[in-house]
Amino acid sequence: MKVLLLKDVYKLGRAGDVKKVADGYGRNYLIPMGLAALATAGMLKKVDHIRTEALAQRQALNQEMSGVSELLAGKVFVFASKAGETGKLYGSITTQMVADTIKEKLGVQVDRHQIICDPIRTIGEHKAHVRLTVDLIPEIKVVVHREGEAVKVEIPAEKPAEVTAEVEQPSSEEPSTSTEEEA
User: Rounded to an integer, what distance in angstroms lies between the CA atom of residue 162 and that of residue 144?
Assistant: First the structure.
């Protein structure tokens, strides 16, 4: 089935593009959600109008979200979690945990679906991307360390902001505190 995209669709295309999609995807999702229409001769005449309108909306949204993008770019989020001797976590750091930490520390509402990262299951530094718009995707760093151990985070000189978060484990009844110990 060929459809004309009326709005930008993540991982499919931008508004005004004609794409060939599976019948069920087009019929059950794209068309009912108002993201696309059947690529008929009448709709193909409106392609230029759809593209210019979408470009204006995209530029306005990018301008609005650029402040949030600058705020998020290069931030470091530190999580303390229980882990085994090999560095594997008991559980994982999920995108929901990262989104909650962003909201708590920076006051920016980010949906967990906007964070592009696999669940983090090991100790160390991990990179994640926050998809604010199609064009604005700032990169953040997630550092996971073992509970009770000191953590060293290298922060770029131009952006000296570090955000920390403690991960609470449901089986732990005592509060976790981070102390610096030298070995």
Answer: 13
Q: What tokens appear for 138 in the block?
A: 């700032």
pTM value? 0.70
Q: Is the pLDDT of residue 6 over 70?
A: yes
> How many CB atoms sit inside 10 A of residue 85's CB?
6
Question: What pLDDT, on the 0 to 100 scale, is given for residue 154?
Answer: 61
Q: What angle do CA 100, 106, 110 make, to 5 degrees?
A: 45
Give the residue numbers spanning the domain of 133.
68-166
Are 49 and 118 members of one domain?
A: no
C-alpha 136, offset from chain centre: 11
Tell me the three state secondary structure of residue 148: coil
Does some domain include residue 129?
A: yes
DSSP 94-144: -HHHHHHHHHHHH-----GGGEE-PPEEESEEEEEEE-SSSS---EEEEEE
Segment 10-20, tens digit of pLDDT: 889 999 999 99
CB 36 within 8 A of CB 5: yes
Task: Give the pLDDT confidence of 24-72 residue by residue, as tens digits.
Answer: 999 999 999 999 999 999 998 989 999 999 999 999 999 988 888 999 9
Instruction: Tell me, yes or no, whether 181 lies in a domain.
Output: no
